[in-house]
Each structure stands twice: as structure tokens, then as C-alpha cells.
Amino acid sequence: MERQTLHDGWQLSVVAGPAPDSLRGVRVPAVVPGSTHLDLLAAGHVEDPFLDRAEESLRWMHRTEWRYDTVFDASVAPGERADLVFEGLDTIAAVQLNGVLVGTAQNMHRTHRFDVREALADGTNELVVTFGSALTWAQEVEGRLGRRDHAYPHPFNMIRKMACSFGWDWGPDLQTAGIWKPVRLERWHTARLASVRPLVTVDPDGTGRVEVHADVEHADPAARQRLWLRVEVNGQTVEEEVLDERGVVTALVPDAELWWPVGYGDQPRYDVTVSLVASSGTVDESRHRVGFRTITVDVEPDEIGTPFTFVVNGRRIFAKGANWIPDDHFLTRITRDQLARRVDQAVAANMNMLRIWGGGIYESDDFYDVCDERGVLVWQDFLFACGAYPEEEPLWSEVEAEAREQVARLTWRPSLALWNGNNENQWGFADWGWQEQLDGRTWGLRYYTELLPAIVAELDPTRHYAPGSPHSRGEVHPNDAGHGTRHEWEVWNRVDYRHYRDHVPRFCSEFGFQGPPTWSTLTRWVHDEPLTSTSPGFLAHQKAEDGNGKLDRGLAAHLPNPAEFADWHWATQLNQARAVAFGVEHFRSWWPRTAGALVWQLNDCWPATSWAAVDSEERRKPLWYALRHAFAPRLLTVQPRDGRSVLVVVNDHDDEWSGEVRVERQTFAGEVLEKVSVPFTVPARSADTVSLPDVVFTPGDPAREVLVATADAERVVHPFGEDLEVDLDPAPLGARVEPVQGGYRVDVRARSFARDVVLLADRVAPDAVVEEMLVPMLAGESRSFVVRTSVALTDPAVLADPSVLRCANDLGQV
Description:
This protein is an alpha+beta fold. It has 5 domains: 2-187, Jelly Rolls (Sandwich); 190-290, Immunoglobulins (Immunoglobulin-like, Sandwich), CATH 2.60.40.10; 318-514 and 589-628, TIM Barrel (Alpha-Beta Barrel), CATH 3.20.20; 634-725, Sandwich (Immunoglobulin-like); 733-813, Immunoglobulin-like (Sandwich), CATH 2.60.40. Helices cover 19% and strands 32% of the residues. It is built from 16 helices and 44 strands. A 6-stranded antiparallel beta sheet has the order 3-2-4-10-7-8, covered by helices on one side. The longest helix has 25 residues, at 565-589. It is globular. The relative contact order is 0.08. It catalyses: Hydrolysis of terminal, non-reducing beta-D-mannose residues in beta-D-mannosides.
């Protein structure tokens, strides 16, 4: 097997459709893997699509047809097989080699392999890939098959392309095209490994089991040679002959070290080498790093309804995590280091699961590598989201080929925890008027209940399959709180975030609240004068329906709606953080009835007002800090139970947590009015309530008092009213700034109770990172905040300026 990468010398040009005159007859240097937008940007033909309103100026690209071409040298040997392999073509493509059409593509999510023996020249070869308009293709399919409902204007449900490339309520409408994954020429004799599927499990006695399934393709089926499949793992080698183009070899590892999710143990992995061997030697090879663990989901009905609880190595896991979208709208810019930083941010926020949402992509090997290494469980959606999908051709065959390839590709990943059929489509059929609009036409149900579960059962029987998210078994409504998974979107769309407590779901796999990106990110990309929440560039980066209206209504019960934009920016970021943390703490307080909370969303794909905790410039919004606290292994939270307030103690450690909780009711000025100590014991991986005397929950003056509960290093500070209802000191803080190695230390002292103290340090230096945010400070307390930055500030005192050192109190005066 000889592999020749074909990434050099590519040129891009317009074939047909709309384009500026400056591009007519012009050939632009192209990067492969890459996309048309990035090539035009690099050549200076377009503005950065993320800048101000540049997205709108690029709508012409939706209808343009493109040509990529290059030349390469190759040699041809008698009897040799030669394949052109495109790991990813986005999306409607025709491939020509030396003027011969060798293949076409209409699916971004699968590999295309074309036999080019007849077209390949001995010497110089010309390779041309022509891309049609994905939007035009999708509309033509819709015209033939009949319209099916879908979110947002374009018919993304008619084509196997990243749905969010057509625009979403957090992402731009920049419909990419190009050779988005590696391309190579493969020349080979004898045979190759067409597919390798290591199924990795653990026997009851602790023996690790690697059952390798391999599909073999012969170069010349009429002249097959005898072949053997060889598996090497942990110093041992097992070999079996390949029969009927398939081989199966099982290797055992006694007393295998177990792979655990982060927070539950280590992530040891074992190298596995799979070789295809002929009498002349090895003809093809595949390498993997596996982790031994068992994983399933408990969905056995109980006295409440139907649970949805992940069980890893026999241990029940509360899934703490977030939904994941593509980390850049232009996928080929995403690097392994970038993915590692993002997953590290999830881990640092005490998350143990990421859900790859069904409107994006099957992620890169780099993404799964990083999750394998760090112990982050991956919930993997199949790529169906927020639309009714036809089951007819040309889609059915593409979906089957795509699913078979991706399931086989990912079977051996220790981090992969679940295959999920779709995002919100069964819910859509039940509640969004689809049934009337469809009038009996197919909408995707057979994908979720027949095709996909059959493929998972055949190719990856080691994992649980869920038909969708949300999903409830049987005849129950798909978003029923008592069964399976639930998405909570009444909050944000229609009701105040305190209504998270209206439901106790078995597993909440989507919920969230919007907030703008950090100041540095926003002002780098939006240059409105003046910059306001309704200025044109700002609104171009707010894609949610009535997004600003919902932000303002979300503030109404909790915080003022400031007139100054900088104050509005801080208030909406703060409200986002509070809203989502409120939901997380509610869900965690009900463990084990509620077994997971996956926030919408961890990351952004461009600089937008969105639900993300980390913006597109990798800066952590206040929400990230709130999640780190709400997902902490040990948590104290005040919750309602049976008509009264109680303290819930959450212990996500392997050890029992016991001691005394010290509770005070004090004034904002620091006078202690009541004080009690209550013993508590919470078993490992449990949550329990601690009943406190009514006297600490009964303020004499709710507008000027606060409850403080402390156990070991954990604390909860609980005001008795919303900020609009209490008498917070508008300027409670004093501070001084000292230079330290790598940045500055800001020493803050509170003269009165200060709620949610932050340092918005990126307003001073774009690279500034603060270790902690949203800190409640009681009267008389001091706290040091360390700011890491490479910028030498002319006047470090700017870090203590009221525009940078802020708290919720100061919003009461705007």
C-alpha cells in the first residue's frame, strides 16, 4: 500500500453562477483541505465573513459553482490497483482525472473512493473537482420529493451537508464548498483493510476483550491470495485466516486496567495494531489506542417513569456537561491544539460529557483523541436536526453509507458513550405542526427506529442506541419529564428561569440561556458607531428569533435593563450565568432521579450573542465560571422541598462527606443575626437534604439580609430576594492592584455584601484571563483576583476601575 497525499498546487476558479467581476476568469491559489470562503479571503477577494455585516455581502456564494484543479505526478505498475480517496467533499461534487469523470459525490459526511486505474497516467496527471451549489441541489430535491418542515429558511434537510452551514440561531449563513478533508492517491497490490472495527469490552472477571472485525477488499477478486488478520495488543499476538472477505480476531488482556470518565479514575489506554498479512508479508495495517471499559444506559422503567442513567464499569454516573457545535464555521481552520484547549475548558468546568449535536459534523479524529485522553464521555448524535427528513432516494442510500462508515470508524473509542438518532425531530413531529404539513409523507422516523438502530446493532453492539433527543419510550410524549431525555426550552423562549424548577427530568440533554460574547471578542468583530444592542452589526451577530427581546424579558424579574450598552452587556452576561447555574443546581439536587445535565452550549463557531459558555475567541464568559461552580464535585445549594427551603448537599466524590454545616443569617453590613451548626453525612456519589431551623430561613428584613452556609471549603450565599427587591450597596468594593509574575493581583475588599464580583479584565487587555469570577463577598471580606496577561499596563490601577471591577450591586444604579 502506497499513499500519496494530493494537497499541493490547487487552484480555485468560478465555473458558473453569480460572482464579482473581479473573479471572472481568475484562478485563485487554493488550500486543500480548505474551502472557497477561506481561499477568497486569503487572496483578498472578500472581507472576513465574520466582520460586521460582511456575511450579508457573500450571499452570492450560495449559488456559485466552483472548480478546483491541480496536477500531480504518478507512476503506474502492471496489475496495480489505484484509488483516488477523498475523505470529505463539501458537498455536490464531480471528480475528473485527465478529463475522465471518475466519480461524483453528494454527501459531506462520508469518504468517497474512486477506482482510477483506467484514467491514471504514468507521469503528469490533471485532477479537477467541480462543486455545484448545495442550496440549488437541496431545493431541487425538495421540488421532487415535496417540502418537509425545517427550522430556518433553507432546506438543509434535503442534503447530507452540515446543517448549520445554512445558518442557525447561533451561526452564520455561509454555505461552504470545497475539499474539506484530506485527499490522496492509494496504489496497492493484493488487498487492503477496507474497514477495521475493534469492539472493546471487559469480561466479568476483569479480562479486557478486543474483538477485531475487519472487512477486506482484494485488488483482483479473481486472483485472491490467502490472507491472515493479525492483532497485537499488550505484548501478545493473535492471528486468524480471513474468510469470505471478513476476518474476526479476539485478543484478551487479563486484569486490564480500566478506563474511567474524568473524576472517576484514570484513563489508561492500550496500543492495538491490526495487520493484514499475506504470504509475502504485511499488506496493510491499522493502529488504535483503546481503553477497556463497559458502558451502557439504564432505561429500565421504575416507580417514577423511565430513567436515562449512564453506567460505566458498573457505576452510575451523573453526566455533567454541555452540547458541542463545530468550533469554527470554517471547519478546516480547527486544529488539534484548539480542540485540546476547548475540551480542557470543559474539564476545568468540572464537565465529564460532551454531546456532539446533530446539526454539525461527525468530529475529527483529533477531537475523539482528546476526549479519550482526558476521560470526557462523548454522546454522538447522528446528523439529523430540527427538520423532517425524507426517507426516499437520493437520501436513504447516502444516510446508510454515512452511518455505516461513521459507526465503524468510532467503535473502538473509549470516550464514545452513546449513539443518538436525531435532535428534536420526534418532538417536532409531535408538537410543531409537521403532521398536518407532511400529509403522510416520510419525515425520518424509519431512520431513527429501523435503519440506524440496525446499523448500531450490527457494527457496534457494545453501545446503547437512543432514537432521539428528547425521547421517551412507548406512547409517552417525546419531551415528557418523567421518561428518558428532555429538552427544556420554555425557559429562554417563554418563561423566567425560575421555572426550571417546574420539572424534574430524568436527564436534561438541552437547556440554556443567551448572553453576548466577551467585550474583546465583540469589539474586535463589530465596529458600529455607536455600538448598541440594536446597532446593525450587533444585530447581524444575534441570530435568535427575538433574541434581544428575550434577553431583556429575561432581565426583567431579576436585574435592571440598563440604558448604557456596557452595562447592558454586563447585565445580560450575568443573567445568562445565573439562569443556567440555577438550572444545573436544580437538576443536580435531584440525583439520582435526574441523572444528567447537558448545557446548551459549550462553544461558539463565530463571534455571536449565543448560549455558549466559551466564545469564538476562546474567551470564557461569566457563564463558564458559573458552570464550574455549579458542576463542582461538592456543592451546597438552597432548594425548595415540600413548601419550604432546604439545603441540598451534593457529593460527587468517591468518599463520604460528613461534618458540620455552619449557617448564618446576617445583614448586608455583616451583623450576624442567627447562627447554627448542623451535622450532616452524605454518602459517596450522592445528594441529600439537610433540614435547617426555620429561623435561618426567616429574615427580619429580606431586603438587607443574606443566608450563608459553609461546609469545609464549600459555601453558598443566598439572598432573600432578587436584586431588584433588595437594598444592595451600589459601590461596596475597594481595591488595589499589585504586579505579579505573569500579570497582576487585584486585592478586593467588601465594605458591604457584594454579589457576583467579577473582573472584566479583557476590557483592559485582550489576552487577560481571570482565575475566578462571580464571587459573592460578605461585608469585611477580602479576596485576591489574579489576572494573567502578557500586556504591561501603563497604569495597572485600571484593573480596579468601576468599568472592569464590577458586581451585581452596581447595576442597581444604572
